[in-house]
Amino acid sequence: MRSSFRRFALSAATIGAVAGALFALAPSRGAEDAVVIPPPALDEPPSQGLETVVLAGGCFWGVQGVYQHTAGVANAVSGYAGGSKSTADYSTVSTGTTGHAESVQISFDPKKISYGKILQIFFSVVHDPTQLNRQGPDSGTQYRSAIFTTSEAQKKVTEAYIAQLDQAKLFRKPIVTKVGKLEGFYPAEAYHQDYLTLHPSQPYIAYNDLPKVENLKKIFAENYSEKPVLVSDAKVTN
Fold it and tell me: Which of 24, 139, 226, 234 is deepest in the core (most CB within 10 A)?
């Protein structure tokens, strides 16, 4: 079920007041706690050109926001993966019956950031990979943890890393992230793109997603970029 903060447009003054009240009454962060984890023992060698992977880890606003601040990422587009093109729209996906997951297509330069580092950030600060069909205040299969790979090499590295993390017992529960081949990715509506950057005072963003970007900055300082790479700049919209 989607938090009511996402469903209504509020004035800037109202947003600020609500966000302030939330922070006064709540713990220091609303996002899932970050977990410091080692990098993958197995990683891909650097290759020429951009590489792409699609990640699902709850609401795509936060996932996109983290990777837009990750150095070496050329583009991060919110969208839908795991279902058909005919049902790839927000209202239908939100029913939880389409097979889609809210996802982010990440294009990155392997010479600047490895695929393994993309995964390390995903499991460490982006989301809690032990939550089944939910993330933070959102629940349903559309919020599941999933990695849609675009090559056999990615699949091999991903599965090995999940096994590595489970064996190390760095999380309190086993990882439930599903790994599968990408069959199709469909960009989300334009108003979902760059949402974290455009609406930093929106209560859902302030409480659930901005702490993830802060954790990226703290834990992966060498991979953090202050200036986000925006979809609007690349003109990749639906």
Answer: 139
